[in-house]
Amino acid sequence: MSIGTKELEAPAIQPVPYTTFTSSRKKLLTLILTATMFASPLTATIYLPLLPLLATHFHTSPQAINLTVTLYIVFQAISPLIFSTSSDTMGRRPILLTTYAIYTFASLGLALNKHSYAALLLLRALQSLGASAVLAVAYGVIADVCPPAERGAMQGFAIGGSNLATCLGPVVGGWVAFKSGGFTWVFWALVIFGGVVFLLIGTALPETARNVVGNGSAKVPKWRQTWWNIFKDRKSTSGKGDEENKDAGTGKKPLLSFKMTNPWACLRILFWRDTALVLWMSSSPYAVWYCVQTSIPSIYKVTYAFNELQIGLTYLPGAAGVILGSYLNGKLMDTNYSVTARSIGHKIDRVSGDNLDNFPIERARARGAYWLLVVYTCALAGYGWVVKSHVHESVPLVLQFVLGMLCTSFQQTFSTLLVDIFPSSPSAAAAAGNTVKCVLSAVAVAILQPLVEAVGIGWVYTMLTVLSGGGGFIVAWVMKAKGIEWRTARVKNTDKMPKDAIREEKGAS
Predict the structure, then answer these.
(1) Among 135, 110, 130, CA closest to 58
(2) pTM of the full predicted structure?
(3) Which of 49, 131, 253, 264 could form a disulfide with 173 if both were Cys (CB 3.0 to 4.6 A apart)?
(4) What pLDDT digit, counting tens, does each position of 283-322 carry?
């Protein structure tokens, strides 16, 4: 080859990696996220076996105690609007530290509250405010470090692991209620849990928000670093900076933004045709599962004459279904993505991540949904009628396992799809989805008992089957047929929306 020819050769352009986080660091992130995500399911489920005991202790009615459950769900909707949307611009670490501080102090207040029903309401609201933003922030962390083709596995492990709390919560709550006849130690356990996880976040969770650290290569100031790295730097005599955040000496400045995102702007997401379909598929099974969990104490106490400890144990089959569903569905999501990519001749970019503008991500995520919906509708309708008919308790327990697995699968799959179609502000999108889930759940729980008393539990679950299961068939069909078309139209015609409503990266920077 001649010298002239060599001079004409252009240097090979290396693709910019989607993330600089290595596989080992992603595994550490997964473990930390699993711990942080314990808060919401643990706090919700550990409380349910205590409901009859709380009604007696505070000298109030079961309906009044159920109001604390409804209020908890309401603040599950409010919390992500306040905190999760801001984590896209302010960073994940400060938001998680703030929310866990609120959660721990609220749990302390509940442990010290002996007689005030009003304080119970207020502190449960604050506890929910602190615990409920974590899931949406966690979705943001996963989207920060995983390209679309690889999100299912990390998400499945993190959510599946965190759902161990749905096993531990009812058993611990039921055991404490049965053995001690009180509830104080339940809240003290939550104080200890909150404090430990707060220290874990501060010590070991690095900043991942792409508006702050880009793909992980941007250097960050000391206050954004983990406490462990700050401690190491102080002991170091070399004067070198944070090892965790320096990546091949890029020297990039972090894309800092301290402007609080408008928490209500992301609600505009709810009114687009493509996102409305996704929201229904993720939210209605979530509301159904909340109804199942809330009705368990009354079903097994009245129909099957179980004590508090036995009632706590009845949550285990459903919790096992949730854990198994999370793990298997994570694997299934990545498989469905690969199969869909092969079917259209698309080569997956595992380095920089796929551009989903022209990829049928709706079809990939909804692949196989019809078969799951068939099983879901049969199990949901059957659950109400076997309880109504006083069938042996093993039958509703098996159906709880099936419903836990399928409700989690739908919620996880379509929450991921919501993040996929709003790639630059994943926590804001997850917060919008969380709002719909919690509003539907709050309404469903509020009207559940009056409906059961009016028409019977069999017909109540039949109505849920028609709305969630029957509606799911229609929505899944429309999503596959029109999803990418409606998404493309939204992106083309709403240039202002990412900047004002969900603060996409191009608007924030």
Answers:
(1) 110
(2) 0.70
(3) 49
(4) 899 899 988 988 888 888 888 888 877 887 888 898 889 8
